[in-house]
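Cont'd.
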Amino acid sequence: MNWEQLLRPVDEYHAIEHGLTPEEFERLCRALGRAPNLVELGVVSVMWSEHCSYKSSRVHLRKLPSTGPRVLQGPGENAGVIDIGDGLAVAFKIESHNHPSYVEPYQGAATGVGGILRDVFTMGARPIAILDSLRFGSFDHPRTRYLVEGVVAGIGGYGNCVGVPTVGGDTYFDAGYNANILVNAFTIGVLPANRIFRARAAGVGNPVMYVGSKTGRDGIHGASLLASAEFRGEAEEKRPTVQVGDPFTEKLLLEACLELMEQDAIVAIQDMGAAGLTSSSVEMAARGQLGIWLDLDRVPTRAQGMTPYEILLSESQERMLLVARAGCEDQVRDVFAKWDLEAVVVGRVTDDGLFRASYGGREVARLPIALLTDEAPVYDRPARAPSDLDARQRLRLEEIPQPHDWNAVLLQLLDSPNLASKSWIYRQYDSLVRGNTVVGPGSDAAVLRIKGTDKGLVLSVDCNSRYCLQDPYVGAVIAVAEAARNVVCAGGEPIGVTDCLNFGSPEKPEVMWQFVEAIHGIRDACIALRLPVVSGNVSFYNETEGHSIPPTPTIAMVGLLEPVRAFTTQWFKNEGDVIALLGQTREELGASEYLAVIHGQVAGVPPWIDLAVERKVQEVCLRAIREGLLASAHDVSEGGLAVALAECCITHPEAALGAVVELPASMRTDALLFGESQSRIVVSLKRRNWARLRDLAQQLGVPCTMLGEVRGRRLVIHPWIDVECSALREVWASALPRRMELAAVHDEARQG
Amino acid sequence: MRWGVVVFPGSNDDQDTLWAIEQVLCEPAVRLWHKDTDLQGVDVVVLPGGFSYGDYLRCGAMARFSPIMEKVIEFANRGGLVWGICNGFQVLCEAGLLPGALVRNRDRRFVCAMSYVRVEETDTPFTHLCRRGEVLRIPIKHGEGCYVADAATLERLERNRQVLLRYVDSNGRATREANPNGSLGNIAGVVNEGRNVFGLMPHPEHAVEKWMGSDDGLKLFQSVIAAQRGAGAADLTAVAPGH
Amino acid sequence: MRKFTAAFVRLPEEESVRARVFVMPKKEVLDPQGKAVARSLHALGFTEVGEVRVGKLIELELRASDRHQAAERTEAMCRKLLANGVIEDFSFEIEE
Amino acid sequence: MRKFTAAFVRLPEEESVRARVFVMPKKEVLDPQGKAVARSLHALGFTEVGEVRVGKLIELELRASDRHQAAERTEAMCRKLLANGVIEDFSFEIEE
Ligand SMILES: Nc1ncnc2c1ncn2[C@@H]1O[C@H](COP(=O)(O)OP(=O)(O)O)[C@@H](O)[C@H]1O
Ligand SMILES: [Mg+2]
């Protein structure tokens, strides 16, 4: 194609092809006073896509609390930043790479990790840890194994090579994700609190510089088509050009950028993520309320004959755009050259408030920055509760027969892929590199020390989407509460949240309802627990052939632990320690793993949660840890008390310890053992500390019950359960490997 | 004594190694940049873990041609102490300073886990503070750590007692189950004939403080320090006890 | 991008033949390995080298009644398993 | 195991030729990838497959004055960088 054809005015047909509605196209033409050309239409279509403009979510995201005494940077930048004292801060964010990972699991997951790493080091922070939150279909689905294998290898392949440890995550398997998996990646980095880099252009005339990999025809329209348009099962025929990750180049880019940031040469910096050069330049200009001009002839390209349209919209990975101080160009070039990278001046900051691009000596795009950003369409889409909600929430416990063999039930639950050990996954991740990992994957939360200080960071990511399906408000509240509880169990004080909101199509009122309910849940929980949401990501259109995924508002929680040596892990440590339960057990089986696994039912409402109680339980646990009372703390979540106790016994990295416990028969046995009542923590402690713990709990009005003691090599829950720990461990440890090694038939699934 | 830690593009555990040396053992150390050609008078050179040059063709294949490696090879040939950890081990094999090669793990997957290794020989500057048969807990993290060599080389390695570490279970038995990557003879670390060049897949720098889960790695670092102190820089191989 | 060397000669009853499968990253897809190898070759003085791409070579032994059938089966294996159609192209040869 | 398709024809002055380098794990070296592929093929019903080995295919563009020189240079690249003689064999072809 002769690229000059791209400069002809387009009509509504082109606009619709680009995903604009007729109304949006009309609005565009009105604002410009003319029809855009094809290059401009491409630019507008990506900037107005759901992915970049947040047009369906913006009005709701504003409701989330995002301020607080520690917040140095809230939502709106590449990552949020929180002050952790002594002149240090942390930058963190979570992001999805769902559709690309379904199409090409290895590269999709790998580039997802690459993208979130860039978001964090762009802020001037050195990334120190990654978490991955994964949702796959059921193991009955022919493609699941192939996807698990590829996604896990991709995350490891990228993170391991860049040299940032993956220290935790969460993983669920549910048929609701059969045709639309979720791959959410989180990164946290450390930076000086007074040296935050932002993506805000400044200084008219300053050079705009391009660094990193060359631009190829990767993922053109990936952002708008892959991430925002519903899959219709034809994705594989369409075969959008897949982006391939280059972690080695990323490592060089990371080191070079951090080195350059030590010098006073750059004004603003942003990675080229979705919608590449376009969104990075437009957003930098918008934040600085300036304009930007790009000379596309100077952009290094990988493929021959790339058109201006392709150069602007390419999503090639491992690229950054920065605004340098005028006169510092050579300084910038030198630092990148040291790391074998090329830095090229590709444009200038202007004062005309316009996005302008030239190619072959002609202006190929001229668009007001405001039109692409602040004035992009915003929708308050209709929301309506699904009509079958009441029916789905109904649960008649009297119709659920109680099993006889409780040992067998416990073993069956530990064999459920959702409760089983995730070691098959996290063994493939380097969780040690950089030498800060105090607690790696395998406990409630990961703990990292911060070198040169006495501080530790505590990280957890959580979301039970079955709860969210049954009641998105309560589900979201629980996601926040559980993430915070996990952090507390490790000894951390929760200080900040980032969220990844994975939902179906916002154009469906039922999905929009789920979304709004979930936002309200996150809002209320964060307000109650005094937590700011400082960054996040929305991923809509997670559907295939009309089926939406279960609503999945994933919450990543960051906590602070000082001194770091006060950390706690979830497993029992000493024979003879007292085992106690903080919190109260109610007769609650709705939306539980027990109902799903043992009775094949997803029904009822998720467990009740009272945020005031939650706060108190967390406070007791945290104080007890600070006072050095506890040997272990483990939050009670899926699988209930019996599974939590089993985990306390068998997750010890070296030697399993047994427990002998007595539970008062106060309700249905299944609810007592496997109900998932919230705000509960199993702790173990020296007998001599018991009185102090009880007093602490009493002061705050938190129920605290002595259950029994750590003893022997069996888990005994009188009078129902009595199993060898080794048997529990065997089932729990082999559940995933057994399913993954099932011949290699999974590869067949490549056919879909 | 002075340690030098080489930094290749893609080195990841370089600063972990420096931490162990400088912060834990309180010994002086310098970074040696891959483009440099001066070893700055160091007494021991460490090639750290990571993914030099992305390990895109073969692990260590490209790093071995970097300018600093020419000097490292010279240094080793003059009897200088050279220690390759993980990726560094792969570089040493590619450079021909150690026999054999490291290929993809038996199950083709990357593995990050605690490993148990048995000290087979103690008459080297790297292991002389250990007991023979002592079991060390040191983590591994690699995708290509399966040690291979042809039969004649293996036979020679065993005969010359060049195998310094073997993967074992917690009881010290070199079983198939205890072998995390399929290495021939459960080999986790080897030394050259001159006993001054050592490569191992486990990461001793990640086992130097109790909170790391083990500080057994210290013994290897301390061996090197003691060997240097004992012998001066002159004759490195004669220090070993039992010789 | 497949290539048959299928000569339609009947092999002596279910004989073993060898197939060589070539799998390459698609043209438009980034090939970080190739890029890195090119850079290293330049650094080693092989400055005459231009583009480099790195793919996989898979050698198979298979029983087949004739070359045509061997080719058909090999192609099926490529489509099903050996090449990832999203990012790779393949071709193959049946041994002469 | 190298193979020259070197025809000693002078190319028009420094023309660009293409070389295909084949790198295979040596027979006696473990090839976990090959084994895994064989297992997967069997599981997919390709039971006629015997041994499988997985190696690398490297395609290069290089400027050379003639095919002979191209072959010489390619061989040097293989020895120096592209293959590791301890575990791999190589062969190559210069494009016809
Ligand atoms: N995809 C994953 N990547 C890394 N670690 C994981 C992943 N999935 C689970 N884990 C780890 O496995 C452990 C158990 O996870 P999970 O069952 O979600 O714990 P909890 O219920 O306490 O939140 C945690 O330490 C978690 O970090
Ligand atoms: Mg969890």
